[in-house]
Specification:
Layout lengths: L9 H13 L8 H8 L3 H13 L3 E2 L7 E2 L1 H24 L4 H11 L5 H14 L1
Antiparallel strand pairs: 1-2
Length: 128
Amino acid sequence: MAGKTNKLSENLEDYLEAISFLSGKTGSARPSDIAAAMSVKKPSVTSALNSLAEKGLVEYEKYKPVTLTKEGEAHAKNVRRKHELLSSFFTKVLGVDAKEADIAACRMEHALDDSIMRKLIKFLKDLD
């Protein structure tokens, strides 16, 4: 059922990111590729895909490639933007090592509210 996204768990957001990344070239991602990319077992992927499909974020049928819906792609893009923004802030403003910044950004991207993200974007633009 589309439109039932509400707030997604960090885990489901990570699945959306992985699907978006994997489908960047072909337009879809196979569940086995998602499992490998996320270092999880296939039953975990199936469970997550069923949840995402119920929320209208992916098109998923057993034994077929997965595709993001428009809403799913928008959500994945938003999480990626937060990750990139945080990682950039940590490296460029705070001088944090890139690898450490990436790990911290991955943890924080899920908790960063969109209103805070907009303020951080404005802050970084004002620095230029």
